[in-house]
Design a protein that fits this description.
The chain is α+β, with helices and mostly antiparallel strands. 36% of the residues lie in helices and 14% in strands. It folds into 2 domains: 50 residues; 225 residues, Spore Coat Polysaccharide Biosynthesis Protein SpsA, Chain A, CATH 3.90.550. The strands form 4 sheets. It has an 8-stranded mixed beta sheet, with helices on both faces. A two-stranded antiparallel ribbon has the order 4-14. The N terminus and C terminus are likely disordered. InterPro entries: Glyco_trans_25.
């Protein structure tokens, strides 16, 4: 379904078209909404530029009344364009993964994006209930031992760790986005980053581009991935604080509600996630450097999380599509 994604096939750099084949659900060079996303931003920039040119010409017009009218029109147009273009220029692209059978979640996210004036692509997420899991294992995407545990009764599974249908769909959706970022941004460097959002993400009060940039300025320059929120299950991440409100990732961290990622981060995430043995957030936090006398932390991807968080998982409105129901 998704093509071959074996770690040995992942290049450290350079073109990746032959390595990251697109899913048949997203054929062609770009995601179905990518062109609209890019063209929309370019269109607003063009409108703003044209409006500024009209305003400048009007200022030198020999017809004062016409000049004032042209100036007023140009100014209003430029303001409308600026309102659409200027926010979120720091992010090269934003993606929100949402299953087609969850339109209520997309409506929830759309309202937040509108309030934030954030341009976001809806990514049609993989529905784990429709997957041929045994076929994925035969294709090398799932570890055979993990496949055995997949078929265990829910009461025998490790909650939040063992693979579930929803967990596999979630992981494949993230992988598709990572591949898309790699394929369609060959000129990107680690100064360019992308925002990936799940459709149960709640942006906390005060969230803005200015706030995000301020928090990001405290993150070490070597980052490949920055989580905007999540859960510290072992309650020890505070020992790994490296800056004001910034902590390293470690094996006790969970969730992929919202995060920033670079192209090199996408490659690292693919390398550590295939074949799948656990749920995706476990894979992304388990590749640690061992420290004597201290708490080990994740080095692939080179990741950090923000605390206090900027987002949280909306649990009161939406039931999980990823986890099995927790048992006693």
């Amino acid at each position: 379904m998704l093509g071959l994604l074996h770690p040995q096939r992942l290049p450290a750099a350079g073109p990746a078209a032959a390595v990251y084949p697109l899913s048949p659900r997203h054929t062609g060079k770009t995601h179905p909404l990518s062109d609209r996303f890019v063209q929309g931003r370019q269109q607003w920039k063009a409108v703003a530029s044209a409006a500024a040119a009209v305003a400048a010409a009007a200022a030198h017009s020999r017809r004062p009344r016409a000049a004032r009218q042209a100036m007023s029109t140009a100014t209003a147009t430029a303001q409308r364009a600026a309102a659409q273009v200027l926010p979120w220029q720091s992010i090269r692209g934003a993606y929100c993964m949402n299953m087609d059978r969850r339109p209520e979640r997309w409506s929830f996210m759309q309202q937040q994006f509108a309030d934030l004036k954030m341009p976001v692509l809806r990514w049609s997420a993989v529905d784990g209930r429709l997957l041929d899991v045994q076929g994925l294992a035969q294709g090398g995407l799932i570890n055979p031992k993990a496949l055995q545990r997949y078929f265990l009764p829910d009461q025998q599974k490790l909650f939040g760790v063992d693979l579930t249908a929803g967990g596999i769909g979630c992981a494949l959706s993230h992988m598709e986005i990572w591949r898309h970022v790699i394929l369609n941004n060959p000129d990107a460097d680690d100064g360019d980053y992308f925002l990936v959002i799940e459709d149960d993400c709640q942006f906390l009060p005060g969230f803005s581009e200015a706030q995000l940039l301020a928090r990001l300025s405290q993150v070490p320059d070597d980052w490949q991935m920055v989580y905007l929120g999540g859960q510290d299950l072992m309650r020890r991440q505070g020992e790994l604080e490296v800056g004001d409100g910034v902590r390293r990732l470690y094996r006790g961290f969970r969730e992929t509600t919202a995060y920033l990622i670079t192209v090199s981060g996408c490659k690292a995430c693919l390398e550590v996630s295939v074949p799948m043995s656990w749920q995706i957030d476990t894979h992304l936090s388990e590749n640690e450097v061992e420290l004597e006398g201290g708490l080990s932390y994740t080095v692939k991807p080179r990741g950090y999380c923000l605390f206090p968080p900027l987002v949280e998982q909306e649990r009161s409105t939406f039931k999980t599509d990823v986890q099995k129901m927790e048992h006693d």
